[in-house]
Predict the 3D structure of the following.
Amino acid sequence: GNAGNITIKAPTGTVSFDGKSSTAFSNVEAGAEGRGGVINITARSLSLTNGGQLNTFVRKADDTKPAGIGDAGNVKLNITDGINIANISDSDILTGIFSDVESGARGNAGNIDIDIIKGSLFLINGAELDTSNQGQGNAGNIKITTAKDIRLNNDASITANTKGGQGNISLNSRNLILRRNSNITTNATGTATGGNITINTDNIVAFPNENSDITANAFSGSGGKITINTQALFGMVVRSRAELERLLNTTEPAQLDPNKLPTNDITAISQQNPTLSGTVTINTPDINPSQGLTE
């Protein structure tokens, strides 16, 4: 049978999940067949900290039961002032929003849809937005619209990786700021095609040599499409597969990973097949963004 939905309404208040056991989930568990439910939250603000999670998984097999079969549910957030997803200190605790199909399970991952009416989205210290599929099926899509900024800092990530296909990311914000090894990825393994990334923002800023990347890569399939519409792009460089080979001094497909470079890179390549690279399109006004600025 299908899992139920979770609806939380606090239009003038804060919804907070703090700590490793603080979770809202609607899952297809091991041994089950059905569809995951929807998690729908309306609030003035949302906070997920120190292991707090929203998740809709399709679970892998355990010692006594086979892997789950069915689609993961969607996560829909309608927030007024802002969302903060963070660990107080660096740690391996998973904190964030997840809609994943685990290894060996069958089904499609769900979508994550976030609308912030007045404020910003902060992902800090390993925080994640993740809709990935490591089983049989497609990754979900992530769509984020904020009135102000999307800020990723210190190993934060927005991910729609897949073995099966799809998994697109759409970001709409005033500014997009990447700090300290933060990543936006739609990478694909096996023969799947990397998902597409579309970014509409006034400014994209990445601090030099902090190794923050935007990637729509594939291993043996085709790279995805990255489309960026912005007034200015600071601190990031578009890299081709040939550039990665030269900078990393290798042609080994598994080693062609921009995360191995200290720079902030944008890539849409096929690691195994040079003819299957995706496309990177950056649309900016025909102006010099540094004119009249001081360091």
Notes: The chain is about 5% helix and 40% strand. Residues 241-248 form the longest helix (8 residues). The radius of gyration is 19 Å.
